[in-house]
Structure formats: C-alpha cells, structure tokens
Write a structure and sequence with these properties.
- The chain is α/β, with parallel strands linked by helices and about 475 residues long.
- It has a single domain, classed as Alpha-Beta Barrel (TIM Barrel), CATH 3.20.20.
- It is built from 15 helices and 15 strands.
- The strands form 4 sheets. The protein has an 8-stranded parallel barrel, surrounded by 6 helices. It has a 3-stranded mixed beta sheet with strand order 6-8-9, covered by helices on one side. Strands 10-11 form a two-stranded antiparallel sheet.
- Helix 7 packs parallel to helix 9 and helix 10 crosses helix 11.
- The longest helix is centred in the middle third of the chain and has 25 residues.
- The protein is globular, with a radius of gyration of 21 Å.
- It starts with 8 loop residues before the first strand and ends in a 6-residue tail after the last helix.
- The structure holds 6-O-phosphono-beta-D-glucopyranose.
- The site of 6-O-phosphono-beta-D-glucopyranose has 15 residues, from loops.
Length: about 475
C-alpha cells in the first residue's frame, strides 16, 4: 500500500432523490421518480423518497458527521425539478439550498463533487414531450446545466455530468425497472443517443463557463469476463463488451460509437438515429476524467451453449424485471461466475474486477479516473447499544482499496474514491432494506421514525483509512 497521492479524494456519494426528501417543499416540483414511485407495484414495498433520509433538513448534521470522519470529498446530485420550474424559471429557494450545502462542505474542508443528473428528470418534461425520448430535452438539459455552472462554478471544481447513462436508459426502456417502464430496444437506443448528445454538449459548455473545473460522466462499468477459455465464449464476452460497455465509454472518451458494436446492432436490425451535426457534437464533448461506478463484474457465455445451470439467478432482486428475452441474447448470455462470492442481492463480489476496470479504461482511453461509486449493499442490524457491526462492509471496501492501490502502481491515474454511500439511503429498487452507508438511518419502508443517525463500525474504519492515506490498511 502507499500509492495514493497526498491530495487523493477519499469521498462518499449520494443522489438527491435518494436522500433529500422534501419532495414538494419550497417550490420543488415532481420528478419522474416522485411520480413513478407513487404508482403501486413499481418499487419495493411501494417505498418512495418523499421523506427519504431528510437530508434537506438534516444536511448540517450529516456534514458534521462527514467532518468528524475527516471525509475529503462528498459527491451529491442536484435535483433538476428543485431548481428549475415547469415554466423554465429558476427556483431561488432550490438554488439557495445547494449553496448552503456547498458552503457547509467547503467550510468543513470537504471537496464538493456535483452530479448534474442522477435520474430525477422533471415530470413536466416527461409530460410535455416524453422526456429523454425527444431531442428537446437536450436544450432543456443545457439550460439547466448553464444555471448550475453560473451559480456554483466558482465554488465547485469537480462535476459529474450524467450518472450511469447506461443504467437509466436500459432500465427505463428495456428492462421496465425505471420510469417510464418501457421495453423497446430501438427506443432505448434513441433515448440513449439523445442522452449522449446532451452529455457531450454539457461538457463542452462546462469547458467554456468553468475553465478551471473538471468534468466527466459516471459510467456503471461491469467489466466483462468469458465464462471459459472456449473461443466461442471469448467472442460472446467481446460482443458484450462492445454493446454493454464501449457503446458508452467510446462515445464519452473518443467521441464516436464503437465500430463493431454498431455493426452488431445493425445486424440485429437496430440503428443509432444520427442527424447531421451529431458526430461533431460528440467529438467536441470530451471529459476531463472518467467517472467509474463499480459494483461487480459480469461473465458471459456463448449463446449456443447448452449449459443452463450457469444462468444467473435473479430471484433475489427486490423488484423483478418483466423482461426475460433480450434482443442481444443471440450475441451473449450473462452467466454466473462460480469463482466468486455474491452479495445478499446476488451481485458478484469481485475486488480484482475493479482493478481490471481501472486498467481497461486506462489502456483504452488514457484518462484519469474518479471512482465515483463503490460499495456493498447489505442488511445491517442496529444493536440495542446503538452500534452496528458491519465487518462484512469493512472487508469489502478494504479488498477493493487494495486493488486500487495495485492499479495505481500499474500505471492507472486514480484521483479519488467515493464509496456508495455515506448515509444509508433510499434504493430505487430495494427501498430502505438494502443499506450501503457508514451512517445507519433508523427507518424502513413503513416507518419514517425520527431518522436518527448512528455510526457503524465502518465509519471508524474509513476514518482511519483517510487519516493514514490507506497506509495502515
Ligand atoms: C448505482 C446508482 O447504480 O448503484 C445508485 O448510481 C444506486 O443510485 C446504487 O443506489 C446501488 O444500487 P441499488 O440498486 O443497490 O440501490
């Protein structure tokens, strides 16, 4: 250990809808998640973020805990419908709230990292023109971004443009797990292309308005493995890599779609809806770093393989996908990796996968990397004495940090590490049952209680990691 630079950003992350609450307070208008989570059956036990963990009212208390931990960076997202109204006017109360959060972080020596979009699109834009499905969203997203750059650009250096574009488009338009709950692969590609254009334009605007800042998208990267060394499985893995990863990573870092990935999609009868000028837009919106959200690796097998035993068991998911046949089934099949252990939600536990992800990004794109999310979702138990013994989380994070250290020694430039998450928070598909934080929040799906905060064992452990710059790990 010992390869972390002195100003390494030891951080933690969150997202507005998952923590803020105050769903319709002080001029905030509904987002697609406010709307969607109120339709019965869409979320785990019909949970929602109406109150969430009430960060809106408790942010000072939470930032005090961050300070106590000596946290170096806090990544949080801005709620678009909290700052821009349906009539396109700015909401001064929303703007003020984020100034307060930023000022409080800075006062306590914590670097704010702003995520511009973490999935809470204004419902008014969904109603007006189907949200991400219309190109109109690109200009609205730019107007919103411009407001943020002008308001906060002189205080905040690090910015994330879109959070996990691959997840919100795929879950929303293929898997029917996120709003607007559609299953249509071509519509997914259309939506995704609009999001890629919005991302590139936002980055290019940022470089004009915040020349001293740094910006990148956060990608949910699940490095691909072949399930065996059978050449057919290697091709399946490479197909998955083109379509599940390069379709975003290449567009971000190179400014164009992967040639093989595009051809594979074309062979299946799908296309990217290019219009004149799009290619230049993508080429002109390159990021300063790649944001990497890492939770697991995924293994793939040849699609003609007869073995069914290895198919992944998804029955532990809290909300089930309605979609089991995927258009890419002819190119690759997701398969269980029998060499790994799994979380309570059947996610592969694979610290070396993080090192592989860092190395692959470095070798293909040569960009600095901000690990913008990594963590373990688990069921934690609050003891009678107010302690929470989450050794499993400590072990998980420790093993991942060791692999980051190795990746740095192998040539990767990693500028920071944000665990997911600082506080327990609302999980889109798992309500309040799946916990990620260093701070336990006393609530579940039914009871909001007092939302009291308790420090888990991992809180003290991460403090020590930060204080020693991971030397004692
Ligand atoms: C990422 C998201 O996909 O993973 C977060 O950026 C999310 O918003 C996190 O909460 C964990 O996912 P889940 O489903 O376990 O809550």
């Amino acid at each position: 250990m010992g390869n972390f630079q002195k100003d390494f950003l030891w951080g933690s992350a969150s997202a507005s809808y998952q923590i803020e609450g105050a769903a319709l307070i002080d001029g905030k208008e509904p987002s697609i998640w406010d709307h969607y989570s109120h339709i019965l059956g869409n979320t785990f036990k019909d949970s929602n973020g109406d109150v969430a963990i009430d960060f809106y009212n408790k942010f000072e208390e939470d930032i005090k805990l961050m300070k106590e931990m000596n946290l170096k960076a806090y990544r949080f997202s801005i709620s678009w419908p909290r700052v821009i109204h349906k009539n396109k006017q700015v909401n001064p109360k929303g703007i003020k709230f984020y100034h307060q959060v930023i000022d409080q972080l800075i006062k306590n020596g914590i670097e704010p990292i702003i995520t511009i979009y973490h999935w809470d699109l204004p419902q008014s834009l969904q109603d007006e023109y189907e949200g991400w499905e219309s190109r109109k969203v690109i200009d609205d997203f730019l107007d919103y971004s411009e407001v943020l750059f002008k308001e906060y650009g002189n205080k905040v250096k690090y910015w994330v443009s879109l959070n996990e574009q691959n997840i919100f488009t795929y879950f929303g338009y293929v898997e029917k797990l996120h709003p607007p709950k559609v299953a249509d692969y071509q519509r997914f590609l259309n939506v995704n292309h609009n999001a890629s254009l919005a991302n590139a334009k936002c980055i290019s605007l940022f470089h004009t308005l915040v020349p001293k800042g740094l910006i990148g998208p956060s990608f949910a990267y699940r490095p691909t493995y072949p399930v065996s060394n059978k050449p057919q499985d290697v091709i399946a893995m490479e197909n998955a890599q083109e379509i599940e990863n390069f379709l975003w990573l290449d567009v971000y870092a190179k400014g164009y779609y992967p040639k093989i990935g595009l051809k594979l999609l074309e062979n299946l009868g799908y296309h990217i809806p290019f219009e004149p000028g799009d290619k230049d837009i993508l080429l002109n919106g390159k990021p300063d770093f790649m944001g990497l959200n890492y939770y697991q690796s995924l293994s793939y097998q040849d699609t003609n393989s007869k073995t069914k035993d290895n198919q992944k068991d998804l029955s532990n998911m809290s909300v089930q996908t309605n979609n089991t046949d995927f258009v890419t089934d002819s190119l690759y099949k997701n398969t269980k990796n029998t060499n790994l252990n799994f979380t309570d939600w059947d996610w592969e536990i694979d610290p070396i996968g993080l090192r592989i992800a860092l190395r692959r990004i470095t070798s293909r794109y040569n960009l600095p990397i901000l690990i913008s999310e990594n963590g373990l979702g688990a069921i934690d138990k609050l003891n009678d004495d107010g302690t929470i013994n989450d050794n499993y989380r400590i072990h998980f994070l420790k093993e991942h940090i060791k692999e980051i250290d190795k990746a740095i020694s192998e040539g990767c430039e990693v500028i920071g590490y944000c665990t997911w998450s600082f506080q327990d928070l609302f999980s889109w598909l798992n309500g309040y049952k799946k916990r990620y934080g260093f701070i336990y929040i006393d609530r579940d799906e039914e009871n909001e209680k007092e939302l009291k905060r308790y420090k888990k064992d991992s809180f003290y452990w991460y403090k020590d990691v930060i204080d020693s710059n991971a030397k004692n790990i």
